[in-house]
Amino acid sequence: MPIAATTRLALAHYAARRDALCPHPQTPAFLLSERGRRLAGSSVRRMFVRLSRAVGLRPANGSPRAGRGPRLQDFRHSFVTGRLVAWYRAGADVTRELPKLATYVGHTEVGLTYWYIEAVPELLMLATERQSGRADTGGAR
Description:
about 140 residues, mainly alpha, 6 helices
């Protein structure tokens, strides 16, 4: 799963600035707080709510509560399911590719990534068709 050149560039700029501001971080984590520590999940979620309101992904309701709108895990879920659907449709060996995807999204066990297949009807249908040999994907089964 390659990262776009613009994203790599933005991450490289962040890393250079982070290293200049915090040359001796307290963690090996990539994203750091001002104190050189791993970002707290609650802080990340609060900032995501603020940013998603600012760009119109969720209504600005004047409340500190998150309200309705996308959550960070929704983006991860969309990415994983989109990648799996694309692999099934392309006839890829999903069993071989799944450990790569699991690593990419930070799952410690491949089984955690298999859950997406069961949770999304289209993926379950594609996986079932592949297993039964009915899928016309143009690739090996």
